[in-house]
What does this fold into?
Amino acid sequence: MRQLALTADDFGISARVNAAVMQAARDGMLTGTSWMAGAPAADDALTVAHELPQLAIGVHLTLVMGRAVLPPRLVPALVDAEGYFPRSPVRQGVRLAASRAGRDQLRVELRAQIERCLAAGHTPRHLDAHLDFQVHPAVFPIVAALAREYRIAAVRVPRDPLRPALVFDRRHAARKLAEAAIFAVLCRRAVAIARAHGLRIADRVYGHHQTGAVDERYLLEVVRNLPEGVSELYCHPGAAAGDDGELAAIVSPRVRAACDDAGIERRHYDG
It folds into this structure.
């Protein structure tokens, strides 16, 4: 059995991204999307998502490069005076590792992000985080506990196979190698925690090493070499300022035909 979930991240970050996600779900192979609660177009995203009940909505928990949904006075260890998280994942990661108050405030903020999705009439199908920050050692136990509390079946653990990313695209090889080494350690721990909490995870997750460049060629490469089991591929339709290669890949008839020819089932990874 080969199963592939195609997920669009950053739903709600802009009207352009929202439109691209909806087009990818209507006309393409998108099975799910990850919604950012504090993003500028977040409310509009959840409103239009009601038009496509088959689209699996998850919460793209935001801890960096975004705005908190709670006021700064309630989460001062996480945000600046305007309510914005740091742009640097390293800075936020060190802060959370060193500060129990920060972790306590993080739990409250992430709970508020999930509650905002529920209040709009959507039951989250999965949790992940902006920049895959959910696998930070101080963060993942909180995410897993919240998933179990809210009966959210799945979490993303970005175990992205390195070889396909290097064979397909040798650009940024040094970055990909460094990321792979770091995330291998983080993901091993996250897998153990997810399983201990009874959460579903994909066997592998494509797109982390190829972020911003999930075009038709890459998607065809993944589909043609997809192993047995449950896989997720995440992408960012609507993020490009010019030609949107990621949206084009998701709606590509060639990619759909390749999936059909290979007998790949397209469905979300939460069940």
Notes: DSSP finds ten helices and eight strands in the chain. Residues 2-266 form a domain with the TIM Barrel fold (CATH 3.20.20.370).
